[in-house]
């Protein structure tokens, strides 16, 4: 079975020399252009959007353990471990990009619909892609709930819309967000305000 994330690791590799592309795109103009997409994100459903270097997106071995021993979704969605990249595999993916747009949204009253978050994240990914950022790839929050029951014994039936969460791929979301000044904290009760984070990788 090909996991839903597998296309990240294949398909685009032969399009061009990435080091050469990266070298040309390191300049301030490239960053300035990417900042326009941060503005676009802030005009949609997100409370915060920050352009970060992928070296500021942290992976850690313990994150996968939290999925396996602490989350009832382990193995139940193609966007969750063990179907998703390990932290080490994700580090390689992150290091094949220069930048990412980190997205954050509070779950205030009337905002409990996480599909709105994912749809806006995919819109941003698609906008970047059609503007020529062909490597653009979004990562959302939590398990994918697009189908009533996930097709875990086969292929994803909505691979065009399904994206793994940051944490499902071994990203330390807390550290990544807190280093950018986003105030995530551990929830201590169901009434606590929740937060969602996502990421769009881009180069
Ligand atoms: S779109 Fe459906 S099959 Fe694909 S990961 Fe989501 S729930 Fe599973």
Could you outline the blueprint of secondary structure elements for this entry?
Elements (H helix, E strand, L loop, with lengths): L17 H7 L3 H16 L4 E6 L7 H8 L18 H9 L3 E8 L7 H17 L6 E3 L33 H6 L16 E8 L1
Antiparallel strand pairs: 1-2, 2-4, 3-4
The structure holds iron/sulfur cluster.
Iron/sulfur cluster binds next to loops.
Structure description:
The protein has 203 residues and is α+β, with helices and mostly antiparallel strands. It has one domain. The protein is 31% helix and 12% strand. The protein contains 6 helices and 4 strands; from the N terminus they run H-H-E-H-H-E-H-E-H-E. It has a 4-stranded antiparallel β-sheet with strand order 1-2-4-3, with helices on one face. The longest helix is centred in the middle third of the chain and has 17 residues, at 114-130. It is globular and about 45 Å long. The two termini are 29 Å apart. The site of iron/sulfur cluster has 13 residues, from loops.
Question: What is the share of helical residues?
Answer: 25-40%
* Total count of domains: 1
Cross-sheet strand order for the largest sheet: 1-2-4-3
User: Rg to the nearest angstrom?
Assistant: 16 Å
Order of helices and strands: HHEHHEHEHE
Largest sheet: 4 strands, antiparallel
Report how far the terminal alpha carbons are from each other.
29 Å
Low-pLDDT runs: 1-24
The SS-based structural class is alpha+beta
Which molecules are bound in this entry? iron/sulfur cluster
What is the gist of this entry?
The chain is 31% helix and 12% strand.
Overview features:
203 residues, four-stranded antiparallel β-sheet, binds iron/sulfur cluster, globular, 6 helices
């Amino acid at each position: 079975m090909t996991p839903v994330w597998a296309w990240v690791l294949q398909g685009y590799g032969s399009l061009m020399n990435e080091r050469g592309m990266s070298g040309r795109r390191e300049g301030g103009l490239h960053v300035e252009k990417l900042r326009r997409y941060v503005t676009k994100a802030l005009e949609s459903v997100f409370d915060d959007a920050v352009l970060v270097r992928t070296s500021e997106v942290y992976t850690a071995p313990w994150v996968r353990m939290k999925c396996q021993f602490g989350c009832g979704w382990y193995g139940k969605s193609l966007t969750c471990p063990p179907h998703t990249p390990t932290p080490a595999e994700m580090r390689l993916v992150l290091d094949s990009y220069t930048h990412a747009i980190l997205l954050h949204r509070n779950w205030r009253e009337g905002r409990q619909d996480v599909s709105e978050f994912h749809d806006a994240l995919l819109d941003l990914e698609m906008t970047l892609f059609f503007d020529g950022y062909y490597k653009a790839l979004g990562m959302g929050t939590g398990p994918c709930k697009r189908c009533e029951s996930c097709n875990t014994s086969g292929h994803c039936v909505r691979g065009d819309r399904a994206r793994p969460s940051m944490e499902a791929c071994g990203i330390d979301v807390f550290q990544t967000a807190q280093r950018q000044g986003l105030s995530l904290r551990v929830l201590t009760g169901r009434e606590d305000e929740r937060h969602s984070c996502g990421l769009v990788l881009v180069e």
